[in-house]
Design the sequence.
């Protein structure tokens, strides 16, 4: 592990050696799938070698306490208790675990916003269709004027039949940091339980899990917390744990929340076990100072692009952290198919990785900023239109 401390951490091109990225690619899509630093990948590999020395002893005897140690480390980072946090493969799996564990009846409503991640929206639709419940989708057109507009739109659709509200902490396609604590308060005042999809939040913005006030919170550690891919978590406090079960029912069924989620069958557990090393790497690179640096860079890049292209952001600059969504200066069809084609063109022709999405009749480019990025990379992007 590099001995360099957070105070002397280098950013931009000087930090590229920390990651296994192709040096010819302007990688502006850290929020897509994350990128693990080399030191975290080495830690993961060391766990793989340890497991293979005696898999039976490891899985049957060593793994239970190791998983709880890793969960405790993450919970401490998020201001929570280890006994309230379990691992899942990703935030989508965590959202599915909650949605598919709860009971709904005809006439019940599940509320989501139009900013929801597509996979989670489909999971909510699936659950509603099977139970006879109604899926209520709150339209939130882009660009968003301010947080008050989001709160007003959601408030207008909450009602006495709302049983569950699902909110993003940071919306995937639009990159907007939503007023999640205020949304939770609105929903709970209406009598609804709340699931928060925090796929992009851990490591991108500082927060405390209990302070948000949600019934259930799911997140990823393989995006902004630098863990290996396949490291997500589900958090809820003890009174509600009895309601929730993993997607794979296994030997722990009936033995409680931790027993059920910690063993769902044979799987690759090395992403979870390497998480403490990822947390250490995040701290070494600056922790909250790194988050602030990435936010400042993403906002500077957004100003550069909107100024060069004469377009707008998906919301106020202050509503973005280490990602931002900028409207592309393109007329014509605004379909997800065209968005995907533009993403491939950026990658194949210009060696720039950035997410392109269609929303509210326009095409939006979502950029991301991590320690290895610098403003010159967004200049490459700005020059294309």
Sequence:
């Amino acid at each position: 592990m590099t001995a360099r401390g957070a105070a002397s951490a280098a950013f931009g091109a000087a930090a590229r050696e920390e990651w296994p990225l192709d040096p010819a690619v302007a990688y502006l899509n850290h929020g897509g799938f994350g990128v693990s630093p080399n030191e975290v990948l080495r830690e993961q590999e060391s766990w793989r070698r340890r497991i293979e020395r005696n898999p039976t002893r490891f899985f049957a005897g060593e793994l239970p306490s190791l998983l709880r140690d890793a969960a405790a480390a993450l919970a401490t980072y998020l201001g929570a208790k280890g006994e309230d946090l379990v691992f899942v493969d990703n935030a989508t799996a965590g959202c599915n675990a909650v949605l598919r564990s709860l009971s709904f009846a005809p006439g019940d409503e599940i509320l989501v916003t139009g900013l929801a991640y597509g996979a989670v929206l489909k999971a909510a639709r699936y659950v509603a269709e099977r139970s006879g419940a109604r899926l209520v989708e709150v339209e939130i057109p882009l660009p968003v004027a301010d947080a008050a507009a989001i709160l007003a739109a959601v408030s207008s659709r909450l009602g006495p039949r709302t049983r569950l509200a699902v909110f993003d902490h940071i919306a995937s396609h639009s990159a907007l940091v939503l007023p999640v604590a205020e949304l939770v308060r609105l929903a709970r005042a209406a009598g609804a339980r709340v699931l928060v999809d925090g796929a992009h939040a851990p490591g991108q913005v500082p927060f405390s899990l209990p302070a948000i006030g949600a019934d259930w919170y799911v997140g990823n550690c393989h995006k902004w917390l630098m863990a290996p891919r396949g490291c997500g978590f589900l958090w809820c406090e003890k009174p509600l744990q009895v309601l929730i079960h993993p997607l794979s029912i296994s030997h722990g069924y009936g033995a409680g929340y931790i027993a059920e989620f910690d063993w769902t069958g044979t799987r690759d557990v090395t992403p979870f076990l390497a998480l403490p090393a990822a947390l250490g790497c995040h701290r070494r690179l600056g922790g909250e100072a790194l988050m602030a640096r990435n936010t400042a860079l993403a906002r500077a890049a957004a100003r550069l692009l909107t100024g060069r292209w004469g377009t707008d952001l998906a919301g106020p600059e202050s509503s973005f952290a280490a990602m931002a969504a900028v409207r592309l200066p393109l007329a014509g069809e605004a379909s997800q198919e065209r968005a995907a084609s533009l993403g491939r063109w950026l990658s194949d022709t210009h060696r720039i990785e950035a997410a392109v999405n269609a929303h509210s009749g326009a095409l939006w480019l979502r950029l991301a900023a991590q320690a290895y990025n610098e403003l010159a990379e967004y200049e490459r992007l700005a020059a294309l239109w």
About this structure: The two ends are 41 Å apart (CA to CA). The chain has 15 helices and twelve strands. Residues 54-280 form a domain with the Aspartate Aminotransferase; domain 2 fold (CATH 3.40.640.10). Residues 1-8 have pLDDT under 50 and may be disordered.
